[in-house]
Amino acid sequence: MRNIAFYGGNAICELGPVSDVVLFFDCVEILVVSARPDLDWSVLTDKLYRRYIDVDFLPVARARMSDVKAAFADIQSSAVEWNEAMLGNPSKTILNPTLGTLADVYARYFEFFEHCAASSSSFHETWGYQVPIRTIVSDMPAMIVASDRPLAEHDALLPDEKPFWLR
Fold it and tell me: Which of 79, 86, 152, 167 is buried deepest, with most CB atoms within 10 A?
């Protein structure tokens, strides 16, 4: 089982297994993006999911993640069809779908995203060097490869290609 993390600045915050992170992005797409098509969600649905968020996009990324958190606070966790194979199996999920809302279920994601955003911003301000936020595999040695992957490789991904953390 591979674990996934948000990585930005000097912070690596582990989210959990691949299936949990995929479900998060699916919930964003299905429950939030489709309900608010007037907003540009690509900073999350493309940049965070598939590529990276550099410091120039941090303000809009923080705003969109805040929008997701607010939307998730209004959605009961029972609105999601939880995969029975995942539930009660710590090797498949660390989520707790018995919590009241999706904001409760994914509270760590919002906290970790903000931590990585602050770290990325601080890193840039302090050293003048950019370490953008990425979603990466957090297991060793794959994490070393992921953290060292040139941003140009992320930029070269086609819209139908899986992000590196899903390969």
Answer: 86
Is 77 inside a domain boundary?
A: yes
Take residue 142 and report the two structure tokens written for it. 């794959």
Quick one: 1 exposed, middle or buried, by C-beta within 10 A (0-12, 13-18, 19+)?
A: exposed
**CA–CA separation, 137 vs 140, rounded Å?**
8
d(Cα 6, Cα 31) in Å, to the nearest integer? Answer: 22
How many CA atoms lie less than 13 Å away from 4 in the CB half-sphere?
A: 27
3 dihedral zone (left: phi>0; alpha: psi -120 to 50; beta):
beta
Tens of pLDDT along the chain (167 residues) come to: 789 999 999 999 999 999 999 999 999 999 999 999 999 999 999 999 999 999 999 999 999 999 999 999 999 998 888 876 556 566 678 899 889 999 999 999 999 999 999 999 998 999 888 899 999 999 888 888 888 899 999 999 998 899 999 99
Question: pTM higher than 0.85, yes or no?
Answer: yes
**Which range marks the domain in which residue 111 is found?**
3-159
Residue 103 lies in a domain: yes
Structural domain total, the chain: 1
Q: Is residue 167 part of a domain?
A: no
